[in-house]
């Protein structure tokens, strides 16, 4: 006898859904999500795809094949994730991962790449751009040059020259595109005066842009040695030939006036036998030269050493002072016997409520040696150089950072204190422990369990506290003996900023190398600190 346990013989066996039924169920699921949500998703993906398609056309035109492939793959992956019914976790994780890759991984990776190049003043572009700039800077008018009839055209923001040769041929070109023949120009008395897709500049417009027009040099051909056409008045043009002769096969640039040969020796510039370089050069990979120079070059190592020492002192002292002041105030205002605790707590967090860069600017005015509030009012007209003396400037920075940082520590310490069970303190008191012993042996270790990661984060923040240094002292007073633009109160990050963006020469490669060094230092300190804090977890 066969028995079917758990199956009612009177009930029919359910049939497997057909393909049409499954499709209907899918449509029903989509409809149940709401037509508005579906429309929002379609519109958002449409905008994303449109932006991606525009970027792909631009990147292909610039021959950026790697970036083009990344955009194509990323766009396809996003569409695959959000157009599918499943993959729900990926739909929530994708935006965060994209922002992480763009604003963290890419920035760090690109900074590391720049650190291995000579990118900086005089080495900003490619070799072709450097050759073009050198040839243009050495142009001289050919004495027997024929006169070319010229019409100035504009396409977008680009100036172009429409040239009518003495034999009647018409050509057009701009600073980036050599002259090339056209056959649809608009003629007036044997002179080309217009071209489809371009706008012809009037006399008044030519006068308004006279500096840009007279500086415009349109290459005669793809060979830079053939010279360029320039116009002094916007109506007549003449041939100019450079006194530098470029040999692409040999990789040399020869000065025809002195017969000096400048060779591409791999340093990113044409260099003569005696070491003279023609500027501008171009960007090349120099390997670890920037890192070696940062750590071994005596002229750079000197400022780097004392800036690094001051950076550690500034970060450590800032964390210690703000923590202990915040903890002291938290203990004081956590006492139930104090009246008006809420009012005092509001006053304590006021410095934290204002933007730090505005507070730093206010403090900079108050500490001004000549008319600052501290000297003129509090000190009765004294002339204390708060921000111009190397030692006092550092003390001033620590004082201002204490003012800005203690409210945060006060808030977190207050929350941590209130989370400690009162029974522990009562038990210790019953056992005869004094208040200091209760605090040192019970409260402080329990506080550090939750506050140690915040102290590490505060150290990392102050290690790179650019806003305070820049707004209060701008790194000053200036160290005139240093070969790089650095001051006595500069920390590493502000020194990196000055190396990259101030002074007559801007060395982005060296600044990026410094940035990577800072990242490695902070990462090592954070890893070691977090490992040390694991010992505190046993207290839980």
Automatic annotation (TrEMBL):
Its main location: membrane. It is a multi-pass membrane protein. Signal peptide: none annotated. Keywords: Cell membrane, Membrane, Sugar transport, Transmembrane, Transmembrane helix, Transport. The keyword Lipid metabolism does not apply. Gene3D superfamilies: D-maltodextrin-binding protein, MBP, MalF N-terminal region-like, MetI-like. PROSITE patterns: ABC_TM1. InterPro entries: MalF_N (IPR035277), MalF_P2_sf (IPR047103), MetI-like (IPR000515), MetI-like_sf (IPR035906), TM_PBP2_N (IPR032550). It comes from the Bacteria. The chain crosses the membrane at residues 38-59, 65-84, 96-116, 304-331, 343-364, 395-417, 437-461, 508-530. Coiled coil: none annotated. The keyword Signal does not apply. Residues 308-529 form the ABC transmembrane type-1 domain. Residues 1-22 are annotated as: Disordered. It is found in: Cell membrane. Part of the ABC transporter complex MalEFGK involved in maltose/maltodextrin import. Probably responsible for the translocation of the substrate across the membrane. Belongs to the binding-protein-dependent transport system permease family. MalFG subfamily. This is Maltose/maltodextrin transport system permease protein. It comes from Microterricola pindariensis.
């Amino acid at each position: 006898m066969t028995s079917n346990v758990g199956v009612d013989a009177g009930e029919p066996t359910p049939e497997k859904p057909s393909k049409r039924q499954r499709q209907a169920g899918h449509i029903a699921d989509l409809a149940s999500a709401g037509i508005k949500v579906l429309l929002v998703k379609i519109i958002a993906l449409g905008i994303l795809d449109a932006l991606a398609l525009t970027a792909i056309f631009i990147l292909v035109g610039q021959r950026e094949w790697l970036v083009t492939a990344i955009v194509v793959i990323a766009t396809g992956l996003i569409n695959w994730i959000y157009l599918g019914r499943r993959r729900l976790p990926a739909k929530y994780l994708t935006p965060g991962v994209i922002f992480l890759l763009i604003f963290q991984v890419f920035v760090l990776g690109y900074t590391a790449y720049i650190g291995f190049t000579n990118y900086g003043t005089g080495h900003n572009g490619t070799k072709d751009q450097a050759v073009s700039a050198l040839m243009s800077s050495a142009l001289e008018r050919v004495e027997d040059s024929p006169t070319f009839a010229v019409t100035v055209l504009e396409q977008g923001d680009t100036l172009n020259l429409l040239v009518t040769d003495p034999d009647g041929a018409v050509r057009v070109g701009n600073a980036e595109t050599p002259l090339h023949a056209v056959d649809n120009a608009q003629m007036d008395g044997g002179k080309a005066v217009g071209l489809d897709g371009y706008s012809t500049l009037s006399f008044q417009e030519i006068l308004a842009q006279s500096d840009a027009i007279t500086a415009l040099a349109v290459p005669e051909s793809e060979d830079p040695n053939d010279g360029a056409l320039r116009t002094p008045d916007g109506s007549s043009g003449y041939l100019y030939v450079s006194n530098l002769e470029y040999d692409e096969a040999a990789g040399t640039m020869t000065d025809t006036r002195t017969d000096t040969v400048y060779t591409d020796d791999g340093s990113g510039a044409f260099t003569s036998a005696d070491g003279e370089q023609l500027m501008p050069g171009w960007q090349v990979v120099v390997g670890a030269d920037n890192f070696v120079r940062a750590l071994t070059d005596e002229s750079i190592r000197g400022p780097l050493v004392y800036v690094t020492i001051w950076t550690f002192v500034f970060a450590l002292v800032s964390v210690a002072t703000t923590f202990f002041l915040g903890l002291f105030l938290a203990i004081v205002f956590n006492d139930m016997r104090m009246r008006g605790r809420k009012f005092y707590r509001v006053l304590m967090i006021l410095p934290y409520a204002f933007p730090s860069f505005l507070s730093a600017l206010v403090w900079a005015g108050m500490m001004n040696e000549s008319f600052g509030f501290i000297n003129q009012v509090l000190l009765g007209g004294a002339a204390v150089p708060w921000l111009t003396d190397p030692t006092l400037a550092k003390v001033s920075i620590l004082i201002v950072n204490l003012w800005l940082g203690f409210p945060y520590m006060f808030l977190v310490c207050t929350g941590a204190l209130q989370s400690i069970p009162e029974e522990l303190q009562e038990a210790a008191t019953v056992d005869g422990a004094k208040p200091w012993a209760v605090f040192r042996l019970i409260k402080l270790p329990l506080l550090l369990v939750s506050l140690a990661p915040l102290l590490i984060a505060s150290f990392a923040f102050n290690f790179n506290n650019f806003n305070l240094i820049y707004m209060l002292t701008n790194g000053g007073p200036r160290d005139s003996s240093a070969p790089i633009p650095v001051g006595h109160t500069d920390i590493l990050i502000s020194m990196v900023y000055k190396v990259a963006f101030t002074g007559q020469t801007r060395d982005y490669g060296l600044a990026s190398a410094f940035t990577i060094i800072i990242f490695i230092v902070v990462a090592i300190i954070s890893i070691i600190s977090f490992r040390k804090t694991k010992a505190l977890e046993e207290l839980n």
